Amino acid sequence: MRESKRRTVRLTAEEEKELARLIHQAEAEAREAIDGLDVAANILDDKPNRAEKTRAGSVDRLEAAVAAVWEASRDRPEIRAAARRAKGAWDQAESLRWRLAMSGRRIAHGEARKLAGPFMNEEDLVQEGYIGLLRAAKRFDPDRDIRFSTYARWWVRAQMTRAIDHTGRPVRLPGCAVEQTRNLRKAMKRYEAEGVPYTLSDLAEEVGIDTRRAELLMQQGQTVSLESPVDEGPRPRSLERFLHDEDAEDPNLHAILAQELQRIRSAFASVLSERQQMVLMRRYGLEDGEYRTLSRVGHEMALSRERVRQIEREALHRLRTLADIREAG
After folding, report:
1. Mean pLDDT, residues 98-109 taken together
2. What is the model's pTM?
């Protein structure tokens, strides 16, 4: 980790803006290469469900359109040249975006040191910080009078606090509540270090929240043992007995099913094409247990509903044919 920090290249304000302009130029070249193609138009012209406050939504659609054109070019020779140009331009944009994001590595390390604690360690937070840097690089606008390092700090911090909330706590809290809890504990440690008596009201006033909310937030960090008794009497029962799920899945059955799914996937790989495997896996939920309609599979693979149906029929016919041959043998 120390070696990676030493290799971090810090950019000046002008270098950040120039790098962002190059990213926008590469994205424009990718968009121009696929402009007018029906495969891309369906994705690029799709209206978002809500108003886009950043450019990230349009960039995500462009990425999906380039991927769809690249996939479709395997069956359509007439668009292969355009697909190659778009793919090359997009790869260049991704490389530049990564360079811009990694110029702010020191931000991720600095914020990780501040937020590291019992919920998540510093190394895990640094990785979350890199994700925040990439999100910031996708949204950064060079025409705004702001440094990328300043703009990215908020995204890094937001990604880290979200990770602490989602993976580090037994009770999930909103991002603002995570920040307020951290500030409450920081104020409490400062009072204790100075030897000054304090109350919960003092902590709440310093953070800028009411006492009742402060009390609720301070209770979220407390843990309860599953072996602790939850009722009184001569034979107290533990919390674990109340949490036992009679309908829980049998682990042995789960292992058998996982083994069978692996066997099916191996069999598919040996007799079906990559596209046929993908259609069957998504149609019948062999990856995540979620059954998908023809339309949804087609949307995910940038194919028409009818084309997905044809690929499914071809794959099933091939499987039946091979099964008949083996039985006859």
Report:
1. 90
2. 0.51
